[in-house]
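Dear H.,

Thanks for agreeing to be a second pair of eyes. The structure we're designing against is below in token form, covering all 72 positions.
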């Protein structure tokens, strides 16, 4: 898996986890104190999130950070 594929997989996983919690993209962005456009780019795999960004998202989704990286 190259860098772009990895970013896309992370974005898809975040979207999947967010939808499981019935949280809109706008709501999650607000909870994380991110711009909605940043959350959109992240979920689309157009940006490479830092470990701290993943930590913030996981806290707001009430999951362990490693769950975001748990994809096949």
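And this is the sequence the design step returned. I haven't edited it by hand at all.
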């Amino acid at each position: 898996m190259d860098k772009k594929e990895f970013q896309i997989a992370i974005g898809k996983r975040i979207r999947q986890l967010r939808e499981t919690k019935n949280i809109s993209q706008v709501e999650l962005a607000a909870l994380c104190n991110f711009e909605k456009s940043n959350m959109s780019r992240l979920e689309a795999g157009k940006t490479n999130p830092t470990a701290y960004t993943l930590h913030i998202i996981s806290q707001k989704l009430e999951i362990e950070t490693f769950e975001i990286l748990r994809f096949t």
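Two observations from my side: The mean pLDDT is 96. Residues 3-69 form a domain with the 434 Repressor (Amino-terminal Domain) fold (CATH 1.10.260.40).

Warmly,
E.
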